[in-house]
Specification:
This is Thioredoxin domain-containing protein. One of its GO terms (molecular function) is oxidoreductase activity, acting on a sulfur group of donors, disulfide as acceptor. The chain has two domains: about 5-175, Glutaredoxin; about 180-315, Glutaredoxin (3-Layer(aba) Sandwich). The chain has helices spanning about 25-35, 50-60, 80, 90, 100-110, 120-130, 155-170, 190-195, 215-230, 245-250, 275-290; strands at about 40-45, 65-70, 115-120, 140-145, 145-150, 185, 205-210, 235-240, 255, 260-265, 265-270, 315. It has about 325 residues and is of the alpha/beta class. The chain starts with about 25 loop residues before the first helix and ends with a strand. It contains eleven helices and twelve strands. The strands form three sheets. The protein has a five-stranded mixed sheet, with helices on both faces. A five-stranded mixed sheet has the order 6-8-7-10-11, sandwiched between helices. Strands 9-12 form a two-stranded antiparallel ribbon.
Length: about 325
């Protein structure tokens, strides 16, 4: 979906961003305070030259680019944008805390490069066109000079931001490395070695995913949580198959994510899809066959918040 024509006037110069009741000096002081709050972890870029320089300096690090506007806050859902003219103030409200969320994530993930672009300036608008940004806000994830994924619109953006940083940047809260808990597999031999190394009572779980598949991104925090809590009960690994089509064919992978279950070096089952509940159920069922009890969950005996399950899968084209 393209930006609606009535949003175009929102792309204004920096000088036009004085809020009602503010003098230009007060507006400048406010902008300086907001910039200081990000503790220099979020780098502001203003044009294509800034972007290309930061992308080059990042090297192999994950780059997360937040593109937003002070005047536009879109959901990314076309039908919802029809309500924009009815109540613009209410439409802007969901984006009010986006900068804070982005800055907080940046402070927690020190190995990731965080960039911010204001789309309201002429230079920012031109860079949006170069980047293919059609919805504001948009968060893009770049690695090795290539865009690997993006999230359009404010709906679930705060959650998706954390999921993307974890999935692509190997970084969870407090700079915890997911790869220290979930083994990354890069070849058929590494897969065979990992499967063979696990004792009989430990179920081997291999997450087969693709870089650009949203369901794989969304379920990965749950996979990390299971790997953390199921130490000694199940061993987890991830196999990214983007550059391994032959291996995916040998494993008979038709959709992602697919979770392969192994015991004693042999596949004993698999789960296809991104339902967290179904994945946990399959793991528990596999272990129950041998009478192996799952470890108690963290905070057992305390009320736990219920969250809706996300179900999704992507078919692979052969």
């Amino acid at each position: 979906m393209s930006l609606q024509p009535h949003h175009q006037p929102g792309r204004r110069s920096v000088a036009a961003r004085v809020k009602p009741g503010e003098t230009p000096e007060q507006a400048l002081e406010r902008r300086l305070r907001e910039s200081a709050q990000v503790e220099e972890r979020v780098i502001d870029i203003v044009d294509q030259a800034d972007w290309e320089r930061q992308l080059k300096q990042a090297g192999d690090k994950l780059v997360v680019l937040n593109v937003q506007s002070d005047h536009v806050c879109q959901t990314g859902l076309e039908e919802a944008e029809l309500q924009w003219k009815a109540d613009q103030k209410a439409a802007l409200e969901p984006c009010s805390g986006l900068k804070h969320t982005f800055a907080r994530t940046a402070r927690e993930c020190k190995d990731v490069v965080f960039l911010s672009l204001e789309a309201d300036t002429d230079e920012g608008s031109e860079l949006c066109d170069v980047l293919g940004v059609e919805v504001l806000p948009t968060v893009q994830f770049w690695k090795g000079g290539e865009k690997v994924w993006e999230h359009r619109g404010v709906v679930r953006l705060d959650q998706t931001l954390g999921e993307g940083v974890l999935y692509y940047g190997d970084t969870a809260a407090n700079n915890v490395k997911a790869s220290s808990i979930i083994t990354e597999l890069g070849s058929k031999q590494e897969l065979a070695d990992f499967v063979a190394a696990q004792p009989e009572r430990v179920l081997t779980v291999v997450d087969v995913s693709l870089l650009s598949a949203s369901p794989c991104v969304h379920i990965y925090p749950a996979v990390l949580a299971l790997a953390t809590n199921f130490v000694g009960y199940a061993a987890f690994a991830r196999l990214l198959g983007d550059d391994k089509p032959q291996l995916l064919a040998e494993l008979d992978i038709k959709e992602v994510p697919t979770f392969l279950f192994y015991r004693n070096g042999q596949e004993v089952g698999r789960h296809v899809g991104s339902s967290r509940g179904d994945l946990i159920g399959q793991i528990l069922a596999q272990q129950a066959k041998l009478g192996i009890q799952a470890p108690p969950p963290p905070g057992a005996g305390q009320p736990r918040e219920k969250r809706p399950m996300r179900r999704g899968r992507i078919k692979l084209e052969r």
